[in-house]
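Hey,
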Amino acid sequence: GAQAEVPVPAVQLNGGTALALTFANHRPDILVVRARDGAREVRGGANAGATLKVTVSARDPDGDPLTYTFLASDGGGSVVQDGSANATWTLPAHRAKVVLYVTAADGKGAFAKTELCLTCGREKELFGARVVDDSAAPVANAEVEVNGEKTRTRADGTFRLLVKPVDRYVLNVRASGFALMSRILDRGTSRTWQLVRARTQSVDPKQPIRIKDSGDDKQRDRSPWLSFALEIPANALVDGGGAAPTGNLTASYAVLDIARAEMPGDWAARDGGTITNLKSFGGAFVEFTDAAGNRFNLKPGTEAEVRLAAPPTLIAIAPPQIPLWSYGEGDGVWEPNGAAQLQGNEYVGTVKHFSTLNADLKFNQSGCLAFKLDNPTMAGKVKVRVTDPSGSAFSQAFEFILDSEFNALYRLPDNTNVKVELRDDLNQLIANVVIKDASGTVLPGGIINTGGPVSDPFPAPDSGICTLVRLDLALPPWAGAPGIPFLNLLYNYDPAEAALNEARTDGYYAKVDPNGERDNLGEWWAKNGFNAATGEAADEHHAIYLNNNDLGFGRDMHMRVERSGATVVRVAAYVTNYGDPDQNLGNVNQAADVWEAGISQTERDDRKGEAAATVCMEYAVVEGVTGGNATTKIVKFFAYNGGLANAPRIKSADLDQQGGQKFIPMLCQNCHGSTDFYAPYPSGVPSPTDAELITAAANPSFDDINMGASFREFDIKSFRYAGANPDNAGAQKDDLRLLNGDCLASAPSAAIRELIQGWHPPSGGAVIGTNDDPVSSWRPSGFTAAPENLLYDRTIAKSCRTCHVAFPNASEAPGEPYAQFAWDHYDQLKLRQSFLHTVALCGNGRTMPHALITYQNYWLNDGGQAPATLNAFSDGSDWPAYNCAP
């Protein structure tokens, strides 16, 4: 909540008593934004040119009426709206990723923002992900099936599958030596799926078969009570056609840990045609296959005996008899399959069919929790796990992938206190999360009551029936502009200056492209020596990576240098961004999919159509300039809506999903640096009017567009990569070194040049060294002794350098110490120590690091080592330790 206190001085009260008026007001919540194309809800992809009906569900804690505003991204189509919660969004006709921004305001100064992202021109849902084992090693050749569509994982465990859009998806992953993994989803996803390893043994189906698994050879954090055994009569197995096996079979089996959410599905079961819910007392996977991979099951009229250990904490409430269930891989619903009796701490019974087996009690009414992600970068890469903290009500873990800002988890026991926690793809606990109730009060231990009851079909997540849980990263609050915090240093998204900012961009593009030769991406490619249709060049250098310490996209980077003899004529680079700005490894896999060997150009272009945006840079002369600047090469910026040749040029882009579009080139200057900020200003006019400012913005000078920006270095250690080892560049190391060499050809800032040549020390007159692995111990020459070296290694190199290295240092701003922001010399930092603590630690002006992902990494990585080092730093003389509380 928020309050505003307004003191009224006594002098304004005609001598009366001074008052302090308090106006309480709370920010509204946008719960969900839905878009429909006719009767179908659109989640990931939509037809190009489609007209969508958009509806917002929101609520205000104070009951204030809300007014809604909708805004499409640049190139993202048009919107018809009337201030209500409903709007009509007409999508563009070209293939692109588009965004609809939604604001709900209470008329008293409080508002909430969110956005809906769609891939325009893609009708199917994309499932692009990675399959790994319990050690995070990739699982190759696994069969992946979603609603009947199938593919297999590549050698690095990745896969790509397009599926007809529906409201419910059943994703199954099968691999030799592993238990079936099955999850119920409501949209396409790019994430990592971890399989449970199974025991395997050769069995003779003509003889009685006995198998047993205690689970003791798997992950060490599994429940210690796990146990499963199965006995099958001789000659009891047949294939799908009823034929007996001709030789030995392979038995694959695994006891599944219900406390680690290893069971398939979402606990939905079918009983007499009615969907119900299950409370589990244990489960196991079993499968029999021949050498050709054909599956075998019990023939009609035969049964097998199964034994499952019951959770010790539930023995007191365990019924003497319990139903057994088999998992339906086709629809993701459990079906009855016999019964079992409690014998000591085990349930013993018979089954007539194999799949994944489960001993469960059914319950028809359930509670539900709705989850609101207050930090949208968490969506798609985390899952919520709900357990019973006492262990006496239920033992299974309920899990759900948080793939949007607002989600709901159903089938929970109603009116039960549960523990909420977040896990990553590999089941590791995410500790840096604050779990709160609907009012924003922190929940000790993450404990909350499920409420209820509700029944299937369940209410919509935004119905208000489910108990609301708010989830946020444990970050100190950012003190930037309200609603549009990051990448906003250069006033590039101020709604009050929208016309001025747009005029600045229009004027900039007109000046750097005076002949209109770069209106779409294909034209930019052609102008800069790339193939106008494909974007490739024979002399380019190319790399694919996840920029894990900057924007969090998967990036497809291309660069080439054009020379006349030894003279650089042009350096041109373009990078196409994939996925969302959230550090999801699926983003880089999506970028790598574009260049999969053996696919057609048509398929490659289809995959390029998934791109968010393409950003282009040139270091070259400006066409049409005469006089002394005719031969002056400058760095120029362009942005395009998509990754295909017909992608139109755009004036603004959203690089962090934090509330809005930011304008070119001011957006680029945040991390590409400058010797001067881009802000054309009326000459000789001390107090210009808005009209005079817009006129000046539309007519920039050469000095205005020559901002002194830089191509950026390629920091191999800060990236993540597609493939089996995401933290190793592998064969791309030399590609990235060559890209760094191309960067040097563009006359970057002095600090960038020193950095690249420090990583790759040149010799024999070369510009860059030949070592693929950068020199990890390198520091700039301005850091020469302890303890400032530690400050550089832990704080500057990992966080501040991400942008500051592109700004001027002492050699570029001699005699102007306050203009030196490259942070390549200790004295630059010492001069601004108080400022640093204000903007990066404890002050009300906390605005650094200035990119969202960098800010999160700064506070959360390595246990918060970067801010802790800055906070405790002292040089023993004129830089005392602050030791403040952020």
